[in-house]
């Protein structure tokens, strides 16, 4: 949902800028056909230009948003932006079952008692889960789940750490300060 909203915001900003630029030149701008045609501004003066441009921009933007939401089918189950909740994962047997049965999985290891930045990153991780509905997102508290953490001791030297799995096999990982930047690249490769 966040990616779709960012895309819509960028599109709306572009459309509004174009509408005002065309109005400044005394021309109308129609975003739905991406065509501009010269026309006289009836109200005259710069206030008339701005009022006309604002009216055109609002109308065009509403049409554009409706068209994009229709094409993206944003509210459909399983569609872009569909809810993809981050789940807490506990128990080594449960962990192994999830990795074996889920097609694409990312697991974020945190240590809420020792890792000050982990809590802040968890909210961004949750937002990312909405952008990648085809991937199952989990969190493991490494302090509470020592058995699971011990299985990945070589990768958990710095937290937070995210490990990706595809078809039951370890696919890649992102560790440390730039975990979020690395995670974006990892997710893109995972869903490709």
TrEMBL record:
Name-wise, this protein is Thioredoxin domain-containing protein
Alphabetized SUPFAM superfamilies for the sequence: Thioredoxin-like
Q: Give the originating organism.
A: Klebsormidium nitens (Green alga)
**Which keywords label this protein?**
Signal
In what residue span(s) does the Thioredoxin domain sit?
A: 65-192
Q: Does the keyword S-adenosyl-L-methionine apply?
A: no
On the tree of life, the source organism's domain of life is: Eukaryota
Q: Does the keyword Transport apply?
A: no
Known PANTHER family for this protein? THIOREDOXIN, THIOREDOXIN-1-RELATED
Q: Where is the signal peptide?
A: 1-23
